[in-house]
Task: inverse folding
């Protein structure tokens, strides 16, 4: 017995699962060659040899408060002539369509159908030989319920959308930047490394923008700041601009600024009652001896406020040595602080990597060659370590105090509990990943995808 043909009326309900569209009312038009889908804010992105396109759609006519964001691979770009004779160059994507119990792949062109009664048009290319169109019938296939767009359940059923992500970094070839690029691309995202120093901004009330090498930067789904110490001020200004235009930034400008300024950072830690080595700061040369006494007796640490990776940090073994170092720093008109030296740490510290409110990796860094500094950049070695609950709590509390979603919190194991040395807003991945074997870049992308995953936009409707 021959199988009955798959019947289509002149209008049908369809789903496009690949795009996260559970219900669309479509017009079946055998007079049109290609199928078309309503789309606006159409933006191409990605590599030239693997282009992608993302767009928004109002799936329900006359309900512009419901917006779904979609992305897909571009299969072609072609000229399409509409029924009124107008020719338009459109992006063409491929997606599976589902009607009733049948699902099959079709090509779809993207165009703005705001003024059309149907958000989708099904052309004859999408209709196979075993289908029959009955032009006098409607809804030969089951009717779908578009109320899904009004429920939070759609958030869990939307397919993963390719994201456009910027990594703000002046070092595109270093380990951390490359890991962010590789991991993002492995997940199907488009990751672009942006040199922070080459960004410039247009600041106004209505349309703040960011430019790069003469062109306006596109809208990014997320920005991952990797701001070096030498460009903190300008880098945080660029991040503030991204924040102004509504881009999700892994770490905000305020948290980066506070953590980078060592004096302010210690004040933040103090305000949140987080343990740290006793620290003193003064401006007048007359205060040298009192400054040393306040920090505790020698040996002492004298640290430049803008020091990074262990550079600009000096151990003064005696009071006289401390006086000499302080005098030298003042002669250079450098800002510095004096800090109690925790002897029992014995040249070791703990680096805790915090991402999205969790300690996702911890390593013990040990100095080499008699150096008191344990920084890996200075030849220190790293090993895995099991941290205590107190150390974990201090790491989490420190990252939260600065409002950092990603942070490297450096701790010393003192006799009276963990002491925070530094909170780093741009922690390197190499030491922690190679030592623990954990995919920290992947954990970071898990957070980004969770935070910027597209959900139906619901704008408040103005009352008449």
Result:
């Amino acid at each position: 017995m021959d199988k009955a043909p798959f019947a289509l009326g002149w209008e049908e309900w369809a789903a496009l699962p690949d795009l996260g569209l559970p219900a669309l009312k479509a017009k079946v038009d055998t007079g049109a060659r290609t199928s078309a889908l309503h789309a606006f804010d159409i933006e191409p992105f990605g590599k030239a040899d693997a282009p992608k396109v993302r767009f928004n759609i109002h799936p329900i006519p006359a309900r512009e408060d419901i917006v779904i964001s979609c992305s897909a691979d571009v299969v072609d770009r072609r000229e399409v002539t509409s029924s009124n004779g107008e020719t338009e160059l459109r992006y063409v994507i491929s997606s599976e369509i589902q009607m009733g119990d049948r699902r099959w792949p079709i090509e779809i062109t993207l165009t703005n159908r705001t003024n059309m009664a149907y958000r989708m048009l099904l052309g004859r290319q999408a209709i196979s030989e075993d289908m029959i169109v009955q032009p006098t019938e409607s809804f030969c296939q089951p009717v779908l319920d578009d109320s899904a767009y009004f429920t939070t359940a759609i958030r869990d059923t939307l397919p993963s959308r390719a994201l456009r992500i910027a990594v703000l970094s002046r070092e595109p070839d270093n380990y951390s930047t490359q890991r962010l690029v590789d991991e993002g691309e492995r997940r199907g995202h488009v990751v672009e490394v942006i040199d922070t120093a080459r960004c410039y901004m247009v600041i106004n009330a209505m349309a703040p923008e960011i430019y790069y090498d003469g062109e306006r930067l596109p809208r990014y789904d997320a920005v991952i700041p990797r701001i070096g110490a030498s460009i903190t001020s300008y880098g945080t200004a660029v991040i503030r601009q991204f924040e102004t235009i509504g881009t999700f930034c892994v770490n905000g400008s305020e948290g980066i600024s506070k953590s980078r300024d060592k004096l302010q950072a210690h004040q933040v830690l103090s305000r949140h009652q987080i343990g740290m080595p006793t620290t003193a700061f003064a401006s007048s040369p007359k205060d040298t001896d009192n400054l040393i006494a306040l920090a505790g007796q020698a040996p002492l640490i004298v640290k430049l406020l803008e020091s990074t990776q262990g550079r600009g940090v000096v151990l003064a073994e005696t009071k006289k040595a401390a006086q000499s170092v302080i005098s030298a720093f003042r002669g250079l008109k450098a800002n510095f602080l004096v800090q109690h030296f925790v002897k029992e740490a014995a040249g070791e510290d703990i680096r805790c990597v915090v991402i999205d409110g969790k300690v996702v990796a911890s390593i013990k860094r040990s100095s080499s060659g008699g150096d008191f500094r344990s920084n890996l950049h200075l030849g220190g070695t790293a090993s895995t370590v099991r941290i205590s609950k107190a150390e974990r709590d201090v790491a989490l509390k420190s990252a939260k105090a600065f409002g950092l979603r990603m942070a490297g919190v450096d701790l010393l194991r003192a006799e009276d509990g963990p002491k925070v040395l530094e909170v780093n807003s741009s922690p390197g991945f190499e030491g922690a990943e190679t030592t623990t074997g954990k995919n920290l870049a992947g954990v970071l992308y898990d957070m980004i995808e969770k935070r910027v995953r597209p959900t139906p936009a619901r704008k408040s409707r103005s009352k008449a």
